[in-house]
Design brief:
Pfam families: Nitroreductase (PF00881). The chain is of the alpha+beta class. Helices cover 38% and strands 13% of the residues. The longest helix is centred in the middle third of the chain and has 22 residues.
Length: 228
């Protein structure tokens, strides 16, 4: 073996999959769909605490997502500190106020009407945890050298999807919040230069009087095309 391939020698292990019977596979696929179909984006949070160990497991799950060249180009910044949450809220609302008062097009504002959103982001103070998902276009090596990551948006999007599923599976609720522009988060959290905010996800329990818009999901026929 040549000198420069030693570090990248491939190692393989046997993988047998989960091996369910066909009827269990059908049953499980139906059950999981039923569970995921109950997930809703929530904006009315309770301040009821969620143990840190739960958040740890949810993030471990997110980090099992596939990623380009298995680089796992993400960092999950987890905020429960009330003072920091409140600073984040203030900065997010400053940007959101500008977005709702001129930066977003009339078409965009019209499309948001059924969701009842506005620039006020009370949930950033109330939810017990804020998870800020950071994407890493490159890693920093030991001597500060840049190491390329690949398919970063796809990878971090997948990890965020796994994160939302794990949050829901645990009986908690979340919101995929995108205050725009989001750069203030990298500053407030003092992140290194190779991290960019991707999503801000409050996590907790729904408020007692929580309301969500009465939305319908597209049926299978409208989202899938089969070529058999
Ligand atoms: N970022 C704003 C606006 C917003 C945009 C989309 I697209 C949404 O689906 C929801 C909201 C906000 O968080 O209010």
């Amino acid at each position: 073996m040549s000198q420069n391939t030693i570090d990248t020698e491939k190692k393989f292990i046997t993988y047998k999959g989960l091996n369910f019977t066909e009827s269990d596979t059908l049953e499980r696929s139906k059950e999981f769909y039923g569970l995921m179909d109950k997930r809703r984006s929530v904006r009315d949070f309770s301040d009821k605490p969620v143990p840190k160990k739960v958040i740890d497991n949810i993030i471990r799950t997110a980090s099992t997502a596939p990623s380009g060249a298995h680089k796992q180009p993400w960092t999950f910044c987890v905020v429960s500190n009330a003072e920091l949450k409140s600073r984040i809220r203030k900065m997010a609302e400053e940007e959101e106020y500008k977005s709702y008062h001129g930066r977003m097009s009339d078409e965009w504002l019209d499309d948001l009407k059924p969701l009842g959103t506005d620039w006020v982001k009370e949930f950033l103070d109330i939810a017990p945890w804020l998870i800020i998902v950071m994407k890493k276009p490159y890693d920093l090596g030991e001597n500060g050298e840049k190491r390329q990551n690949y398919y970063v948006n796809e990878s971090v999007g997948l990890a965020s999807g796994f994160l939302l599923a794990a949050i829901h599976e645990a009986g908690l609720v979340s919101l995929t919040h995108t205050p725009s522009p989001m750069n203030f988060l990298a500053k407030a959290l003092e992140r290194p230069e190779n991290e960019r905010p991707f999503l801000l996800i409050p996590v907790g329990y729904p408020a007692d009087d929580c309301q969500v818009p009465d939305l319908e999901r597209k049926p299978l026929e409208d989202v899938a095309v089969y070529y058999e």
